[in-house]
Amino acid sequence: MFHNLAQLIRYRGLIESLVARELKARYRGSVLGFFWSFINPLLLLLVYSFVFEFVLPNRSPEKPYALFLFCGLLPWTWFSSSVLEASGVLISSGNLIKKVLFPAEVLPIVTVLSNMVHFLFGLPILVGFLIYYRRPLELPEILWFPVVLLTQLILTTGMALIVSALTVHFRDLKDILGNLMTFWFFATPIIYPMTGVEKGSLQHTLLNLNPFTHLAISYQELLFYPGNPPGPFGHWRGLVILLFASIGLFLFGYFLFDRLRDSFAEEV
Fold first, then answer.
1. Count of alpha carbons within 13 Å of 52, Cβ hemisphere only?
2. pLDDT digits over 52-91, tens only?
């Protein structure tokens, strides 16, 4: 397993070209092309702002609520889209899988990286609104942002490897996964603040067991609550624990993928 894992470095050129191909294919034929990567999150944030300011005024203490929501929704979109797309990537790329020398593991990795690019394109929109609403971005806390990004990348890649390998043998998993991700979304403090859940309660304990809870809180603390409470990034312990857990999940995911690799060509 570790030998094959070390070979991923050799495939970086292939991964880069496949990510570029995926991004070009997504907007092929559209007039605005890659600009949709900026326009989509902008329109989404404007719609949320309009709805929660004028149509359904939100009573949440997090003001503006649309901005609070977007701080968690943007990384969640990267995560959920990657996992859902990875569930069918091996099946839809059967012609590549059947080639003897093709490294199948690059396909779910490409899915994760291409969705990460869209996430990064959405960040300038989010930062622009943070500046507009005078939410100061403090340097000591922003230095933690690459750690949060790396943690999500490792976690998402591990999940993508597991899901892509299992779906080849259990096709029903792809349909189950859509409903599971919906449940997972509502079980994560994205549309509601973690501070609204009573500490020590069963709900609080279950939320802490959810790995994406710690990512959502980290993004919210760094972007929406910088310096509140005053002091350094408050959720760093939970983030570091999640980082090591994500590395473990990634290694398990790659191990599972490597064990099932030889059966992919027959199943797809």
1. 20
2. 677 766 666 667 888 888 889 899 999 999 999 999 898 8
Burial of 196 (0-12, 13-18, 19+ CB in 10 A): exposed
Residue 22 — φ and ψ, nearest 5°? -65, -45
Residue 142 and residue 157: Cα distance in Å, rounded?
23
Peptide bond into 211 cis (omega under 30): no
Residue 246's pLDDT band (cuts 50, 70, 90): very high
Residues 6+ apart with CB under 8 A from 39: 32
Instruction: Give me the pLDDT at residue 3, please.
Output: 67
Domain count, the chain: 1
Token pair 């859902």: residue: 84
Q: Of 233, 52, 28, nearest to 144 (Cα)?
A: 233
Q: How large a percentage of the chain has pLDDT more than 90?
A: 35
d(CA 246, CA 156): 8
Tell me the average pLDDT across 23-45. 72
Q: How many C-beta atoms surround the C-beta of residue 59 within 10 A?
A: 6
State yes or no: cis peptide before 64, omega within 30 of 0: yes
Confidence class for position 34, pLDDT limits 50, 70, 90: low
For residue 208, how many other CB atoms are within 10 A of its CB? 15
Distances (CA, A) of 2 to 105, 154, 164, 203, 243: 13, 16, 19, 39, 20
The answer to whether 158 and 253 are in contact (CB under 8 A) is yes
| Segments forming the whole domain that contains residue 27 | 2-267
User: Which among 18, 47, 46, 23 is positioned nearest to 35, based on CA atoms?
Assistant: 23
